[in-house]
Design a protein that fits this description.
By secondary structure, the protein is an alpha+beta fold. It has 3 domains: 177 residues; 43 residues, SH3 type barrels (Roll), CATH 2.30.30; 85 residues, Alpha-Beta Plaits, CATH 3.30.70.100. It is 57% helix and 16% strand. The strands form 2 sheets. The protein has a 5-stranded antiparallel β-sheet. It is elongated.
Length: 359
């Protein structure tokens, strides 16, 4: 056993020395880069995300370079070199995926979505998030493929598959169809943008905001704090409502049924007063219209405007409550009522004398 390990003493010592030097150099480089990132905030996400995988990659490279010196006849050197090769590919893949994610963090710093008019920022963030996540998925697939190709058995299998490329291509295509569909859906959403982060949508009858757009699913935050998880393909293949596609401004309605005797001008004056007193109203639309009539009552529609869907909902509730309270206070006689004839009179039953024959 000692005879086997003795030739490894010098390579192991050299590898340990190279590893220590690589770690020290990586720490110095991180210190310098963090100082630079203080002056360039957009560089901070790249520095922080690359810190751990970058340090690991530098250490693996240094170790691999040193272990190229021993002769190929050294016992076990081939397995160690192969293991280091796979580890380097894995670390490089990890680093590339982290850097792809850092692109979105930098874009989010450059175009913050917490501004009042955040339509452009949300558009850019959505495109960047989807494209970077798609890129990260591609990087992971390429990295796994490169790692597998380092094994001779896998290359042999690959050569056999190439010999029957038609059947293999068909099988791989069928197996990879869901994955490719997800990737293409992500790219299509990034380019066409039917949805963006923080968009207000109605999906499957649920009202909510786009909280997260992932690699395979979209998370919609429902108004009652539930979460609706929807596949990416749903937004490509099925219709849905997007209330903030071009702007967040929206109209809201409040419907009331009143008697035909209700005067409309006082209702319009009351609606104007309520809107002007409400901070939710954006000053664009404030009107009352008769939208429907029946044999018993007429329907009034109060149409108001707000800067976004949340304010519109609150304004609708405020308007509805204020108009109902005003009717109860000033015009209770014109609330909807049911009229009935309780005299027992039936047309066509009168006698020649004009009296009901049953009397």
């Amino acid at each position: 056993m000692l005879a086997i390990l003795e030739p490894w003493f010098a390579p192991a010592l050299s590898a340990a020395t190279a590893l220590a030097i690589a770690l020290i150099a990586a720490r110095i480089a991180l210190f310098v880069l963090r100082r630079v990132a203080r002056r360039e905030p957009l560089a901070a996400p790249f520095v922080e995300t690359a810190a751990t995988p970058g340090t690991l990659l530098a250490a693996l490279f240094a170790t691999y370079a040193v272990l190229q010196a021993p002769p190929a006849t050294l016992y076990g050197i081939g397995g160690v070199r192969h293991l280091l090769t796979v580890a380097i590919i894995a670390a490089a893949t990890w680093l590339a995926m982290r850097l792809a994610g850092a692109v979105f963090d930098a874009v989010a710093l450059r175009f913050p979505a917490d501004a009042a008019d955040n339509l452009a920022a949300r558009r850019i963030q959505t495109q960047t998030r989807l494209l970077t996540r798609t890129l990260a998925s591609v990087i992971a697939i390429v990295g796994a493929s490169l790692a597998l190709l380092t094994f001779p058995e896998v290359r042999t299998i690959g050569a056999g598959l190439l010999a029957s490329a038609g059947i293999a291509g068909l099988a791989i295509g069928i197996a990879a169809k869901p994955i490719l569909g997800i990737l293409l859906a992500g790219v299509q959403i990034a380019l066409t943008q039917p949805i963006r982060l923080d968009d207000v949508v109605i999906v499957e009858g649920e009202w909510g905001r786009i909280e997260e757009i992932g690699r395979a699913f979209v998370v919609v935050a429902i108004w009652d704090q539930r979460r609706l998880v929807v596949p990416l393909q749903h937004f490509i293949e099925k219709p849905f409502q997007n209330w903030t596609r071009t702007t967040s401004e929206i109209l809201g309605t409040a419907l009331l049924w009143v008697d035909y005797g209700m005067p409309l001008e006082p209702r319009r004056a009351e609606l104007r007063r309520v809107c002007e007193a409400s901070k939710e109203w954006d000053g664009r639309v404030c009107l009352i219209q008769v939208t429907e009539t029946t044999e018993r009552a007429m329907q009034l529609r109060a149409l108001v405007s707000a800067a976004d869907a949340g304010r519109a909902w609150d304004l609708r509730c405020i308007v509805r409550e204020a108009l109902v309270a005003c009717m109860q206070r000033d015009w209770p006689q014109f609330l909807p009522r049911v009229r009935a004839d309780l005299t027992g009179h039936e047309p066509g039953r009168e006698s020649a004398t004009g009296r009901d024959p049953r009397a």
